[in-house]
Amino acid sequence: MALTLKAMEYFTTALRHGNIARAATELNIAASAVSAAIDQVEAEFDLTLVVRQRARGIQANAAGRDVMRKCERLLEDYRSLLLEGTGLKKSLSGTLRVGYYAPVAPAFLPQVFDAFLAKRTDVTLELEECNNDEAQDGLLNGTFDAILFVSEDVRPAIAYDTLITAPPYCLLPKSHPLAKHDAVSMKQIAQHPLIVLNRPVAASYYEGLFKSGARKEPVAAYANSTEMVRSLVASGRGISILNMLPLTSGTYSGAPVTERPISDNLPPLTLAIGYEKSRPRRIVKDLVRACRDHFDAPGPARCVISGQIRNAAPGLDNDRL
User: Fold this and answer.
1) Comparing 193-202, 215-224, 237-246, 302-311, which segment has the lowest mean pLDDT?
2) Separation between Cα atoms, residue 306 and residue 303, nearest integer Å
């Protein structure tokens, strides 16, 4: 039988008191449980460790004192571990590891962190962009404390909160004829070369928005980053369909893009935050709360399209939606 922490605690308490009854009183258990623990420790080491004297209580022999000291060190290390774990759970310190499958996360994550972390803090942020499967793998194997991901492809073991549902929109060069419309249809989009965001979940989702045989023009390009899609669209290579909006109309190429809502009734993609719900650290709970608050608030910082042309924030183009 493996030696338990409880048996070590009963054993060391009894030897410290030199009396089984007094140890039982301190531990608030039956004296027989203390006596059984002593027997268990002796059986585990196959040694006599305690001299029992009916009138004078109990006393450890040399081997017993040695075992007692080692048990006390193990118990002390165990209690220290529990205290450190409690501190980790309650404090805003250490490392917060976030994996994200959200191409426009740079548009909102800094604001989210600002909501609950001071500029100077004991927290180190480790942020990793990954695909939807990698994000979920990382949460399950402990690589990430929390993940931002698309919940349409969620695994049963992942606990998550929905943050926002993002309807698809059409991304266009500013000079494109469709940019003159308040909204565009999938039939109109099908008449133009398409730039497809070629990421897990995303590519099949965008292809599935078209009815079979509806697209008149071929796919002009597949790109696995949102910024490459935006730059290709800005250069006039084609148009695209995306779901979440950055907070700028500029692209890496220097040319601007614009967005229009799609008039068809299309399924959205859902941005969610996944985390361990049963025993989350305080900093993870604060992150989740800050994410919810951010996306519950109205305005362009939600990073989703609306049916109305939105007023531009400072530095934004007035033609953005």
Assistant:
1) 302-311
2) 10
**What single letter denotes the amino acid at residue 51?**
V
Q: Is 57 left (phi over 0), alpha (psi -120 to 50) or beta?
A: left
Which CATH fold topology does 95-321 show? D-Maltodextrin-Binding Protein; domain 2 (3.40.190)
For 102, half-sphere exposure in the C-beta direction (CA atoms, 13 angstrom radius) is 32
| Cβ-contact 178, 172 below 8 angstroms | yes
Q: State the Cα angle at 254 between 252 and 260, rounded to 5°.
A: 85
Structure confidence at residue 68 (pLDDT): 87
User: Which numeric CATH code is attached to 5-90?
Assistant: 1.10.10.10
d(C-alpha 36, C-alpha 29), whole Å: 12
The pair of structure tokens assigned to 216 is: 């008149």
Over the stretch 222-274, which tens digit does the pLDDT of each residue have? 999 999 999 999 999 999 999 999 989 999 999 999 999 999 999 999 999 99
- What DSSP letter does each residue of 266-298 carry, written as one string? ---EEEEEEE--SS--HHHHHHHHHHHHHHHS-
